[in-house]
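Q: I have 220 residues here and want to know how they pack in 3D. Can you give me a structure?
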Amino acid sequence: MINPTTLEFLKDLAENNERDWFESNRPRYEDARQNLIAFTTDLLAKIHKIDPGVSDSLDPKKCVMRIYRDIRFSKNKTPYKNNFGVSIPSHGSKLGGVEYYLQIQPGKSFIAGGYWMPEAEHLKAIRQEIDYNAADLKKVIDEPSFVKLFGDFRKQEQLKTTPKDYTSDNENIDLLKLKSFVVFHQLKDKEVMSAKAVDEVAALCARIYPLNVFLKNAIS
């Protein structure tokens, strides 16, 4: 489970996002990070049983993302993220791409999956797969219990124009215009702090798994 002290640290960090405070509270950060690594270790073992593409040799320390923000091109110059992110690739060891993603943040935790903002070559391949096999994707995303958990898959950011090589009267144009292919499920603080948190997050990943299979097949 996620310890209450981990959420407390993140809450305090959001209110004191500057280097001097962080350095004076580094032991709290290290404890929180170790909590995330332990949680990720347990979660990886369960997800590997659900999705064999998730390598059993993944290093949980590398899955827990850096808390330091890249502020070089950002107007927001706060040096630290207000959350812990965990990226679990659905194939190989490179973070990003088709993945499961866990965010831990007071009041804003969630589990997600799919492919966020695919690179051009992968985006083209996914659109082609949708054009050829949309029924396979719709079987996943339109299943009532899936919609109840993750909402309407089509209500993500879309192109304002019709993508190249397709026409506006394509029966699946709402899917073809998507810029990302992801789902999210919000997690309450009490849920991530529950003794059953790993099992419950893994169960949600099991529901995401068929979407990730479709996307991996598209780009393989």
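Q: Anything worth noting?
A: The first strand starts at residue 84 and ends at 89. The chain has a mean pLDDT of 95.
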